[in-house]
Specification:
The protein is of the alpha+beta class. It has a single domain, classed as Cytochrome P450 (Cytochrome p450). The chain has 17 helices and ten strands. A hairpin with a 2-residue loop joins β6 and β7.
């Protein structure tokens, strides 16, 4: 395996795509000892394995830890795993099927579309404030508050409580990086306990006083006889918040940074936003992928490119590499906001395809459109730093001037 794959190195975090190209050139499956995973870099393989039922986000629906040759998580990490393991992202059929069906009842296309005016008005207001101040940190002023407010609005979380959500989410998501340390785990456990306690209280309140929100919808589905436990509701709400804004935040800042570095593409977008914003959203999701990998357990022996990967192994499906695979994308290293044929897998695929993808697209289009309209001279005020994260790829800040 090419030694350029060094996900903790600053030069890799700055630009992982040359290393991905080397991985694709070297083969279809590579064992990576530091994380005890098989790296899968090609689009066709990533796409196929996302749909392959011989793999799973969990193995506990079929095996014990011992039967699968894995150690149980440390007891002190239990609050995080109780929260994480009861969300549909980390479950398989039939439990996943039941929970996703219930969530889909409350997360209908009509519900999402009904949020569009709120999203667009909020994006416009946030951009107006940024412009009035002559610029600032686009990450903190636009990218973060927009999706957090939208998911909180969907869940029915009071505005006064919303500032607590982002720190909880960031601490929990730290556990999704490769080889998280004990300090990261301790923060995730604390956030899991606090967030769960908060949601348990909110669910109890909504049982007595239901509203027109997602939590009330999940309670109603539960009480109509389709079994959804309180823990499953809590885990679902946390998942929707974490997945519903972490990727959107990173897609926004990564996307604008890419545009600032390609003035020709930014000028073309400014010249014809109505036509190009929809394809630009898809291209920015592809070009600098906000979620760089997705992990799956191998439940039965598989073979990838002549390489046998045994039951009990874990594969790391490299979304960032798949989205730059020249077998699928013409000139993948080039930003092309008019790219018409764009089968990126930034929202995953198969049964774990992102249920919030339509809402994410509305949010990204709303903030992109508002910035193009109200800040036509928007420019980079300082070179940003990369967050020291590999899996969830983003920037520490994005300072802009108008």
């Amino acid at each position: 395996m090419d030694t350029a794959f060094t996900p903790s190195a600053p030069e890799f975090l700055a630009d992982p795509y040359p290393a991905y190209a080397a991985l694709r050139e070297a083969g279809r499956a590579h064992y990576y000892a530091p994380s005890d995973q098989w790296l899968i870099p090609h689009h066709a393989d990533v796409s196929a394995l996302l749909r392959d039922r011989r793999l799973g986000r969990t193995y506990l629906h079929r095996f014990t830890h011992e039967e699968f040759g894995r150690q149980a998580p440390p007891p002190e990490h239990e609050p995080f795993h109780v929260l994480n393991d009861n969300g549909m992202l980390d479950l398989e059929a039939p439990t996943h099927t039941r929970i996703r069906r219930l969530v889909a009842k409350a997360f209908t296309p009509r519900t999402v579309e009904r949020l569009r005016p709120y999203v667009e008005e909020l994006a416009d207001r946030l951009v107006r404030d940024l412009v009035a101040d002559g610029g600032g940190n686009l990450a903190a002023r636009i990218a973060e508050p927009l999706p957090v407010a939208v998911i909180a609005q969907m869940l029915g979380i009071p505005a006064s409580d919303r500032p607590r959500l982002r720190p909880w989410s960031a601490d929990i998501c730290g556990m999704y990086e490769l080889n998280p340390g004990e300090e990261t785990a301790a923060r995730a456990v604390r956030a899991s306990l606090e967030f769960s306690a908060y949601l348990r209280e909110l669910i109890q309140f909504r049982r007595k006083d239901p509203g027109d929100d997602l939590i009330s919808g999940l309670i109603a589905a539960h009480e109509d006889g389709e079994s959804l436990s309180e823990q499953e509701m809590i885990s679902t709400c946390v998942l929707l918040l974490n997945a519903g804004h972490e990727a959107t935040v990173n897609a926004t800042v990564n996307g604008w940074y890419a545009l600032f570095r390609d003035p020709g593409q930014l000028a073309a977008l400014r010249a014809d936003p109505e036509r190009l914003v929809p394809t630009a959203v898809e291209e920015l999701l592809r070009y600098d992928t906000p979620l760089q990998l997705f992990e799956r357990w191998v439940l039965e022996d598989i073979e990838v490119g002549g390489v046998r990967i045994p039951r009990g192994a874990e594969v790391a499906l490299l979304f960032g590499s798949a989205n730059h695979d020249p077998a699928v994308f013409d000139a993948p290293a080039k930003l092309d906001i008019a790219r018409a044929d764009n089968p990126h897998i930034s929202f995953s695929a198969g049964i774990h395809y992102c249920i919030g993808a339509p809402l994410a697209r509305i949010e990204l289009a709303a903030s992109l459109g508002a910035l193009l309209r109200r800040a036509p001279g928007l420019g980079l005020a300082a070179e940003p730093g990369r967050r020291p994260n590999f899996v969830m790829r983003g920037l520490t800040e994005l300072l802009v001037e108008v």
